[in-house]
Amino acid sequence: MTTAAMVAEFGDFADWTADAVEQLGTGHAIPAACRGSSSPGALAWLAEACELAPGNTLLDVGAGVGGPAAWAAERFGVRPILVEPMLPACRAAARLFGLPVVTADGGRLPLRSGSVDVGWCLGVLCTVEDKAALLDEMHRVLKPGASLGLLVVVSRALQRLPAPEGNHFPTQREVAGLLANAGFRLLEQIPRPSAAPLSWSRRVEQVAAAVAAKHEGDEAYGLAARQTERLGRLLSARQVSIQLMHAVAAS
Ligand SMILES: C[S@@+](CC[C@H](N)C(=O)[O-])C[C@H]1O[C@@H](n2cnc3c(N)ncnc32)[C@H](O)[C@@H]1O
């Protein structure tokens, strides 16, 4: 179920981010538009694990504002296809990067079977109730043997603090089971390297400050901020952790 807080976080914030980037300059676009992954170290690990190569189609499901896919296109020459259910996020990704974006749910991908070279799904599984449907669809559209890069917020079994609204964090065991049932083999996993260089985090902060200056009094701003705070508390208390995973589609 999509809650008001999720609409604020993934919808309103997407529009506001695109506005702020247009004000500050295009150099701010990629760092500001990486809403789930945010660290260039994490993106580099995923890109190398998936052996991205020029001309590969990279399907990013739950692409948000498109920062990770734009980063991969710039650094590795891949051809991204973005799928994202929130219209404002699709609009923002098209505005900032001019990438092809399809407004759709990850559980019903409007793509041909076996047509995609590499799939990414970053910070999305925890926001989706039917995780199995999304992973089944990703398996269907990927070529046999293709790589899937995931960033997943994984819950420890004992999670006591409140989660951001609409989030259902899977345990490690659940993720492993979901991947296996969808036909993926989990090859490798590491905790997300979170530190970003100042050159990156400074741009993220400048965009955040521009958004706050304009929207801090809006109800949607408060709802989205509460989502971020809740996730931050869970991470600080080590009740969840952010994991990078590399799986391959077994044929
Ligand atoms: C934390 S954001 C991550 C965005 C992006 N992947 C990134 O790393 O910057 C989660 C995204 O998943 C999207 N999402 C939620 N439910 C989805 C679904 N059923 N299918 C595909 N995407 C979904 C949200 O709209 C949101 O843009």
From TrEMBL:
<protein>
    <submittedName>
        <fullName>Methyltransferase family protein</fullName>
    </submittedName>
</protein>
<dbReference type="InterPro" id="IPR050447">
    <property type="entry name" value="Erg6_SMT_methyltransf"/>
</dbReference>
<feature type="domain" description="Methyltransferase type 11">
    <location>
        <begin position="59"/>
        <end position="148"/>
    </location>
</feature>
<dbReference type="GO" id="GO:0032259">
    <property type="term" value="P:methylation"/>
</dbReference>
<dbReference type="Pfam" id="PF08241">
    <property type="entry name" value="Methyltransf_11"/>
</dbReference>
<dbReference type="InterPro" id="IPR029063">
    <property type="entry name" value="SAM-dependent_MTases_sf"/>
</dbReference>
<keyword id="KW-0489">Methyltransferase</keyword>
<dbReference type="GO" id="GO:0008757">
    <property type="term" value="F:S-adenosylmethionine-dependent methyltransferase activity"/>
</dbReference>
<dbReference type="InterPro" id="IPR013216">
    <property type="entry name" value="Methyltransf_11"/>
</dbReference>
<keyword id="KW-0808">Transferase</keyword>
